[in-house]
Fold this sequence. Notes:
- This protein has a single domain, classed as Protein Transport Mog1p, Chain A (3-Layer(aba) Sandwich), CATH 3.40.1000.10.
- Helix content is 24%, strand content 45%.
- It has helices spanning 53-68, 123-141; strands at 3-7, 10-14, 19-24, 31-35, 41-46, 72-75, 86-96, 99-110, 113-122.
- 20% of the residues are buried.
Amino acid sequence: MPKTFSAMGVEFLYPDNWVVQAESESESHPGVMLDLPSGGFFTLEPVESGQSIEVLVDQIAETFKDEYGEVEAEQLQLNAVDLPGVHLAVDYRFYYLDLLIISRLMFSEISGRTYAIQFQSESRDFEKNELVINAILKQIESI
């Protein structure tokens, strides 16, 4: 039976074997993080008004490089992939403990506010979990 997340003006169903690791509605850092059973995660956070998405993308890329060394970044062609409501998406690929990790950073307009959405998973589990993430995005977009 799926569970429901409802906060920050956003509501969606998610698998019952995903665990809400952290949820904060404080004004200083609102957002939610869900742990996937395969070891990945999904986060949803509102972007501060006036904050440049391009600057955020660059900051996140630098953070990955500082943490993991070599990082490959690829901006996705949104017309070639099914990402409902997403107006910018970047896939980062890097190695951690000999595992290839894929981290997808997306920005979406939801109820008049921009949200940063990140989905990260080991490459072998990415495609399977991507289907669930896309289903969540479709729910959020239909609000």
